[in-house]
Specification:
With 326 residues, the chain is of the alpha/beta class. It folds into 2 domains: 176 residues, D-Maltodextrin-Binding Protein, domain 2 (3-Layer(aba) Sandwich), CATH 3.40.190; 100 residues, Osmoprotection protein (prox), domain 2 (D-Maltodextrin-Binding Protein, domain 2), CATH 3.40.190.120. The chain is built from 16 helices and 10 strands. It starts with a helix and ends in a 5-residue tail after the last helix.
Amino acid sequence: MRTNRKHQLFRAVAGLFAALLALSACGEAEVDTPAAVGGSITEDYDLSDVELTVGSKEFTEQLILGHVARIALEAAGATVNDEIGLAGTAIVREALLAGEIDLYWEYTGTGWITHLGETEPIPSAQQQYEAVAERDLEENDIRWLEPGLFDNTYAVAVHESAAEEYDLSTLSDLQRLLDENPDAATFCIASEFATRDDGLPGMEEHYNISFPDDNLVMLDEGAIYSEVADRSNCNLGEVFATDGRIAALDLTVLEDDREFFPVYNPAVTIRDEVYQEHPELGDLFGEIASRLDTETMQDLNARVDEAGEFPEEVAEDWLRSEGFIG
């Protein structure tokens, strides 16, 4: 597959340098921040006798959500073990099943397609949630708490200049692009999207298209957005619909006109034995999930990816702005 090793090396070195500068600027005070107190969570919940391990996947949105969960639990008095940013989907899910973590935010479409092995998504967000929640509890003793409002579906994006140049507005248009101008159908994707049934393989089958291997550029999730904006290595890119960089970089999301991608509403998934001991966790995270709409999540993601803030700072600031913590 096509790669740009020089660019990747440059990005890696630049990212490391920026991280070192950030750490030196933050100093010791950044590490030992006391748990937030006050606010509605402290007033309404008492988890002072509870110890929980919170996990998450490793991309920006998951880091933010993981810290939202951690800070909320700490505000309620719980002792929290931090496994935020653990790894990708498969490893975090296995950690939940094995009892190595107690809870993490997962997406309904991922649960249905990836974890439960279904091949056809359910178009209705509520019905998709109900179906995955019922099956996962029955088969795996994993309980899905109330979902958030945003839909972080996979999507395919192009820079607005490429959309205009090649007349692209829907995923169905990719067949024409591959037929008429295959050299322009370069596609930046991450390794997980390349192998998931609700990723590239399923999309190709559903839309009856096939990208040549030479057209696929394998990158980390975070690098895809700028590559699509620059158009140096690829015109197309796999993105998440709630990523703030879509608007910031003038990217256009192609319409999923044949409704391939499932609904991906976020919900805290928790081992049922933990939930049975502490059912108040359902109310706690239900309140939080009800405030997480698409505009909110795009803004939170952009604060990390565009403004350079730390995920834990963004999470704490949002919880405070919503009155959950003091």
